[in-house]
Amino acid sequence: MSSVNAQISHNSSDPYRTLLAQAKRQRRLLSVHWELTHRCNERCAHCYLDVQPPQTHPTDELTTAECLNVLEQVAALGALYLTLSGGEVLLRRDWGELASAAHAHRFVLRIFTNGLAITPTVAARLAAIHPYAVEISVYGADAATHDAITRRAGAFVRTRRAFVLLAAQGVRAVLKTPLMADNIDQFEALRELAAELGAIFRYDLVLTPKRSGDRTPLRHALHYADLVEHYRRTLPAAASALAAPHAPGCRLCNVGRNALAITPNGDVYPCLELPMVAGNVRRSSLQTIWEDAPIWATLGNLHADKLTICRVCPLGSLCHRCHGLAHYEHGDLRAPSTIHCTLALARRQALIERSLATPSELPLTVHLAALKTSLETGSMARNASPGTIERT
Description:
Blueprint: H1 2-6, H2 15-25, E1 31-35, H3 64-76, E2 81-85, H4 95-104, E3 108-113, H5 120-128, E4 133-137, H6 143-150, H7 155-168, E5 173-178, H8 187-196, E6 200-204, H9 224-234, E7 259-262, E8 267-269, E9 279-280, H10 286-292, H11 294-300, H12 323-330, H13 338-353, H14 366-377
Parallel strand pairs: 1-2, 1-7, 2-3, 3-4, 4-5, 5-6
Antiparallel strand pairs: 7-8, 8-9
């Protein structure tokens, strides 16, 4: 998961960085993302889940006792990072008990929420468990935009208030935004809103279909021209990344190495973008799943030299390939992901336009040239364009 890399010091002499690097080489579990419920009090247009109404009572959600047992197992495996999310995690009546137990296990704890349920009392409870961060999804810099995406009138006012309440309790908050066609024109305003609220600002540019395979969320995706314009504005002057061949045996995606995801019913996935069931904690111990599930051997063999197209791609240094998104699109873990090919092409175009690279320094393969032509002529279907993942 990217959260692990984001929290590693850049100091190569840092013992903590050394410890994590060693753990990665040993395929040690470092990070767990746990969707505690798929109930939600918003109906976001781009959501990758088929969420359930907040008043429902799912019979398959892990019970409090089962969740506490799983937390014990995660701790026993030595994981450092734990993210609790949903749906809307605060809809579980036992969220406080589970979060407190996570704190007692000394996880670096993050909580993903939409903020609607954060009252002064809830903010105080969150402060008491000292989370690393509470990350709140914001989809627009004004009520009209945010509420239209969430399909919940009054959501913006309540979400904004959540930041104020957390700040009063000294809780680190992150304002995270999926950039898509609905809000790309508010990028700077969203950055300013985060600063005003004393929150860290993060955004994403990758969208997935629903876990069921429904591609409806991708209708909100940014177009290629939007992506190029975004990179023109945001790529730093030092962003020149010239082509470099992939080293033999290198991994272009770390899925299956140091992280896993758990769903509300106890299914274990390699990651949220790759919903292939490795096992279920109701039927096997987490240690057995982590050590013995066949999926890990399959993922472990996905080195660059196993990827027919990606292993020779001259834009590899501009691409953040995801095996899961390739599987969503093609049913093949080894195929190229159109979403990430498009992002790499947009970065390339912005670098060339800003004279940070030349076309000859970042050449195109036949595959990339054909995709670029399709994107520029508008012949690509809209639902093949990149957009945003939102994890709340």
